[in-house]
UniProtKB/TrEMBL annotation:
Protein name: AAA+ ATPase domain-containing protein
Superkingdom per UniProt: Bacteria
Region described as Disordered: spans on this chain: 310-335, 483-506
Biased composition (Low complexity): 310-325
Compositional bias (Basic and acidic residues): 497-506
Xref: InterPro entries: AAA+_ATPase, ATPase_Atu1862_pred, HerA-like, HerA_central, P-loop_NTPase
Residues of the AAA+ ATPase domain: 24-284
SMART domains in UniProt: AAA
Length: 506
């Protein structure tokens, strides 16, 4: 299907069309100095194509989060571990959800690591989820620098490698890179060279003008035109737009960035005795306490997990006929019982293992309101920990053991999305059960991929949490040195009952 989106107008007032299908195959490079209208151009492209293709935006300044209000993009905060970001990116591809990865508030090295982990997560998705995705990276020179800067070499290699994979190898995986940069000279050449479509805006430095002219196939004497371009005016070239350099004017957008260009504002009228106002301290300044804004200390994960392990089973939860009236008070014990019952109902669905945490969380909140559970809603972090405990399937006797408390303490060394898998394996070791199969581990992680389950075991082993080995018959054993326990041998290729089709079960 050929879809041409309206990017603005060309000379003569004709619409400037961009072929999205062609763009997905040939990628795009946008260049222009600060204030030339690059962000406006990207926003126009994203708004016009939102209904046609999944979008992922790497946003270092948090300017594109406003797309979530009108177009439903999920906003992902970059202040997470690399494992969490990779897991979120995998689920983004699996469920075909458009998102904005906002890196606002992170320093440059943290931004590079976060973007690298997220892009690698998109790139490493299983083949069955290689749907087309428009991956927009603003300020690309930050993530693919031409030379090393003040950041560590490890962070630079990670980010540059992810950007190179996006632009060089991403097409076969459905990833179409759209990169924007202020300066071509600062952008790694092997990343810029993979784009076949170009939109060049206002540029002043000779070296950048020369590179822009080379990319557009123009004579270097014509490069001076880039200095005269107005804000929002670009020269387009490429199979998705025009086979010859074509000046275009980018059209209007429906959303706006949270920040804007500085505007002139007149100073207030001159105040009398202005020096006294500035240099004379207010008497209250000496008595006013210094307020340091800091987030409240989070509840320790080990405490939450230990409490959840001993939570009341769903069978003991009160019936709906005992639900309190809308204005009645509810005790902490009763509230906990109702929350446990709602969680058990949700996780009782066989398909719950393959739904994202955000989908399960929304369903949980709706059902909790239907049960008229009073008090503030459960935070997302605590909900994820409850899900991890529930999926481990630990019984009351094991939950009360000293070994399980040690397992809970060890689980905080992995990210939230991996705790369910870790606790599943720990429970099997403490109860001397067979090692879970690849399919069972994959289901605990929320995927059908047995290969990903084996990668999780390898990750736990790299962290020094487990030791994986096989017996003479080829069955797998997972040992926990800190627990002094190990699973019984188990067949990694065993097909669980939940995974069998009706014909296979017969």
């Amino acid at each position: 299907m050929k879809v041409g989106i309206d990017m603005g107008t060309v000379q003569g007032g004709q619409p400037a069309k961009l072929d999205i299908e062609e763009l997905l195959a040939t990628r795009l490079l946008v260049q222009g100095n600060s204030g030339s209208g690059k962000s406006h151009l990207l926003r126009r492209l994203l708004e016009q194509s939102a209904q046609w293709v999944q979008q992922v935006i790497i946003d270092p300044e948090g300017d594109f989060v406003t797309l979530s209000d009108k177009y439903g993009h999920v906003v992902v905060d970059g202040e997470r571990t690399e494992a969490e970001l990779a897991g979120i990116a995998d689920r983004i591809r699996r469920h075909r959800v458009s998102c904005v990865l906002t890196l606002e508030g992170l320093d440059v090295e943290q931004q590079m690591r976060a973007a690298g982990a997220f892009l690698n997560g998109l790139f490493d998705a299983d083949r069955e989820f290689w749907y087309p995705v428009l991956v927009v990276v603003d300020e690309a020179q930050m993530f693919a620098p031409a030379v090393g800067g003040d950041v560590s070499e490890d962070a630079r290699k990670m980010s540059l490698g992810a950007m190179t994979n996006l632009m060089c190898r991403g097409r076969k995986r459905g990833l179409a890179g759209v990169i924007a940069t202020q300066r071509l000279a600062k952008l790694a050449k092997n990343v810029a060279a993979e784009a076949s479509n170009f939109l060049m805006g206002r540029t002043f430095l000779d070296i950048d003008m020369a590179r822009a002219a080379d990319l557009l196939g123009m004579d270097r004497r014509q490069a001076e035109m880039f200095r005269d371009l107005q804000r929002g005016n670009f020269v387009a070239l490429g199979p998705a737009m025009s086979r010859r350099p074509l000046p275009i004017v980018i059209g209007a957008v429906e959303t706006s960035a949270r920040s804007s260009s500085p505007m002139l504002m007149p100073l207030p009228d001159a105040l009398p005795d202005v020096e006294d106002l500035i240099f004379t301290p207010d008497p209250e300044e000496f008595t006013r306490p210094i307020v340091r804004r800091a987030p409240p200390a989070p509840r320790p994960t080990t405490d939450i997990l230990a409490e959840l392990s001993r939570s009341t089973p769903a069978s003991l939860a009160p019936s709906s006929s005992e639900a309190p009236s809308r204005g009645a008070e509810m005790s902490a014990e009763e509230r906990e019982d109702r929350l446990s019952a709602v969680l058990s109902e949700i996780l009782g669905d066989p398909q719950a293992a393959y739904r994202t945490d955000s989908v399960l969380y929304q369903e949980f909140l709706v059902r909790a309101r239907m049960r008229r559970v009073s008090g503030p809603p459960m935070p997302m972090g605590e909900f994820r920990r409850r899900v991890a405990i529930a999926r481990a399937g630990v019984d009351e006797e094991t939950a009360a053991s000293e070994g399980w408390q040690t397992a809970l303490s060890l689980s905080v060394r992995v990210s939230d999305d991996l705790q369910g898998v870790f606790l599943l394996l720990a429970k099997a070791a403490l109860r001397h059960e067979e090692c879970p199969s690849d399919q069972r581990i994959a289901r605990a992680y929320g995927t059908h991929s047995a290969r990903r389950a084996r990668r999780l075991l390898g990750y736990f082993e790299e962290q020094g949490l487990v030791v994986v080995h096989t017996d003479f018959s080829g069955k797998r054993i997972v040992a926990f040195p800190d627990l002094e326990a190990e699973t019984q041998p188990g067949d990694p290729n065993q097909v669980d009952a939940e995974e069998r089709t009706p014909s296979a079960a017969e």
